[in-house]
Backbone:
């Protein structure tokens, strides 16, 4: 495991953020991550890409990533510089796609307690999220080591290529 902590500013979104809100279908004529990144979350917050900085963290309500099974959604988030997504629950297919693309996501039932603009730190190894703004510490079930290895490698394809190369 390489990167144990993720530190960033929080951007809040509500529940049931579907993949079309993450990256609208009108932009799916490309699969170039940098192009997708320009439009991430555009229909939920048209100014999101302009406001956020690389390394920031999305904290959302339940059922994040519902809707279609498009892999473009986690690709766009990651390419835009979103360091992680925290929500009480994730749509099943988005959950798997996020790890396959190397985007860390964490299930936290108390995510509603974290406000937009808060500075937080996610300790992936110990399963804690520390809200540096409010000094509250939250526990989550750490992701399995294999899933952390996918994140460390930058996604499933990179992980597989590294395995083939013997790294």
Residues:
């Amino acid at each position: 495991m390489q990167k144990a902590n993720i530190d960033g500013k929080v951007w809040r979104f509500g529940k049931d953020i579907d993949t079309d809100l993450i990256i609208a279908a009108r932009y799916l004529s490309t699969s170039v991550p940098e192009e997708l990144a320009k439009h991430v979350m555009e229909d939920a917050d048209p100014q999101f890409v302009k406001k956020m900085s690389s390394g920031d963290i999305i904290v959302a309500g339940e059922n994040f990533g519902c809707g279609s099974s498009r892999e473009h959604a986690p690709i766009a988030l990651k390419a835009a510089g979103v360091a992680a997504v925290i929500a009480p629950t994730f749509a099943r297919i988005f959950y798997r796609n996020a790890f396959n693309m190397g985007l860390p996501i964490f299930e936290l039932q108390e995510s509603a307690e974290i406000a937009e603009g808060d500075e937080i730190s996610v300790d992936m190894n110990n399963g804690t999220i520390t809200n540096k703004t409010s000094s509250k510490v939250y526990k989550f079930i750490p992701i399995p080591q294999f899933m952390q290895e996918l994140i460390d490698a930058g996604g499933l394809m990179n992980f597989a290529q590294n395995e083939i190369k013997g790294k």
